[in-house]
Amino acid sequence: MSRMFIALLLSTISLSAIADVSVVKKEGVKSDQVNSIKIIYDGDITAREVIQLISAIDEANNEYTNVKEIKLYINSFGGSIESGYLAYEAIKNSSIPIVTINAAMVGSSATLLYCGGKKRLSLASATFMLHPAATPNTKQEYLKNNEIEKLSKSVKDANEKFKYVYQQCTNIDTESLDKILFSEDYSKYLNIDEAIKFKLTSAKETGIIPTQISYYITNKD
Known about the structure:
Elements (H helix, E strand, L loop, with lengths): L3 E5 L12 E6 L10 E6 L4 H17 L6 E7 L4 H12 L5 E10 L2 H6 L3 E5 L3 E4 L14 H25 L4 H7 L7 E3 L1 H6 L5 E3 L7 E6 L3
Parallel strand pairs: 3-4, 3-10, 4-5, 5-6, 5-7, 6-9
Antiparallel strand pairs: 1-2, 2-10, 7-8
Helix pairs in contact: 1-2
């Protein structure tokens, strides 16, 4: 029998209500023997997947108390800013410190997850993307003043979340940050060296490590 087995969380473990998460556990390992956990988040930032992520974090904190840190690998172009901010707070306040790692792309609202890490690392060829928030239009040909104000407020509120988080996890000055969050003309695509310069990340990670417990979260097609 293989030393590793894949258990769908749809079955008997505590995340059974979350249908699109899978977990790999080392066979025979007891909860108090677990000392290494990773989570791989690959896909859009949505309410569903963020709840899955928070559930995995909560399970790790409750079940595996001897783990010193959780490694969270992120590959995402972004998605919901509100869900991204929720994930940021959960990652930041995890009892077990979470190390966030850019596994390929961390863009838009995915940067909020990334910034929640106690330590932030990046694989060598990964890319970061910072840009302004956007909101869906009303699909109307003509807009009234109140409709324009409503759309404007939605974008402003989202950009305030970006600004608040970026002020915690980068050294980008306020003027430059305001430009980034105003127009795509000022959006930034950063490689690892540039991300280190802006204090967004601190160092290179050598690869994706094997762990005793591994959670996998992705969007359902």
